[in-house]
Amino acid sequence: MDMYEKRVRLRELLDETGCTPLMGAYDLLSAKIIEQTGFPVLYTGSFVTGASAYGLPDVGLVQMHDLLGLAREIAKETNLPLVCDADTGWYHAANIWRTVHEFESAGVSAIHIEDTVFGKHTEHTPVLLDTPVMCQRIKACVDARKDPNFLIFARTDAIYLKNDPEEAISRINAYLEAGADAGFIPFKGSVASLAEFRKKINGPLIVTSVDFQDSVADEATAGANMSIYWPLTIFAAFKAVKKVCEEFYQHQDATKLHEFCFDEGLINKTISYERFEENLQRFGAI
Predict the structure, then answer these.
(1) What is the CATH number of the domain that holds 168?
(2) Phi-psi region of 185 (alpha: psi -120 to 50; beta: other; left: phi over 0)
(3) What is the CA radius of gyration of the chain?
(4) 217: containing domain
(5) How remote is the C-alpha of 71 from its chain's centroid?
(6) Would the N or C end of the chain have less CB density within 10 A of its end CB?
(7) Is there a domain that residue 284 lies in?
(8) Does the keyword Metal-binding apply (predicted)?
(9) Considering only CA atoms, which of 185, 181, 174 is closest in space to residue 130?
């Protein structure tokens, strides 16, 4: 699919009955594995990019151009719609058009912007944008897009950081009225509480669980349209690499690591060796 077809497909998935899982990629290899596995949508964001590419925490240090390179490569090298975390948009309403322009030009299918200025992934008192300020940013994003199928999602952390569902409902509905294509909340608590929350939202809702205690089916029953599973691949990679390093450091014996390593053939299939072989047959090597 080209970038326009991917955006149409993402909009179709958002409108479909049920809950579509968005699987998080932290690099291009993980994105290709996700695609080959059969997932319908890719996602990448500031936490995984900051951790994997720069060793930085997700506390406002990861900026637009830190994320654009990976987004561009994933969009270029896979055939799935890609949703990207765009933090607060990095600019006030008059300048946020640049965020939209850069991600849209990179071939991304959607971005989400959030209302958290400070406090995410910390124990400090959170600071959220005033609702009218966030709404102006959303309006500016919608106005800036060239392709109407490039989607703008609006995230609030009023539940995640403030434990205030009523404020989250008010904010999400205001953001939808401002033109966002969907609201987005990190939720905590039971899916029953999510279902009650969902009834009061006047448009599509995307969720991500804070503790991942529920299934996609549970989230679908609660009324979520999409659910973002952003950390699974990077958490899995971290644990596996750490295990291999510790085992090899302790035993200095790679024969004990076959469970984790030495599948070069499988990796080669993932990183386009087959295309190289086909081109070699068609065009020769020199």
Answers:
(1) 3.20.20.60
(2) beta
(3) 20
(4) 3-237
(5) 10
(6) C
(7) no
(8) yes
(9) 174
Contacts of 165 (CB under 8 A, 6+ apart): 158, 159, 193, 197
pLDDT band at 264 (very low <50, low <70, confident <90, very high): confident
Q: What is the pTM of this model?
A: 0.94
Helix 232-251 vs helix 28-37: crossing angle, to nearest 10: 110
Model pLDDT, residue 22: 98
Whether 80 and 6 have beta carbons less than 8 Å apart is answered as: yes
Q: Of residues 217 and 267, which shows the higher confidence score? A: 217
How far apart (Å, rounded) are the C-alpha atoms in residues 79 and 110? 15
Residue 245 domain flag: no
In the numeric block, which tokens belong to residue 202?
A: 């006047």
Number of structural domains, the chain? 1
Question: pLDDT class for 271, splitting at 50, 70, 90?
Answer: confident
Reduced to 3 states, what is the DSSP secondary structure of residue 253?
A: coil
The answer to whether 168 and 207 have CB atoms below 8 angstroms apart is no
Contact 218, 191 (CB under 8 A): yes
Q: Where are the alpha helices (DSSP H) in the chain?
A: 3-15, 28-37, 46-49, 64-77, 97-105, 131-144, 165-177, 191-198, 216-221, 232-251, 264-270, 273-283
Asked whether the beta carbons of 24 and 232 are under 8 A apart, the reply is yes
Q: Between the CA of residue 41 and those of 9, 91, 154, what are the distances in Å?
A: 9, 27, 18
For residue 174, the surrounding DSSP H or E stretch is helix 165-177
Structure tokens, 29: 């290899």
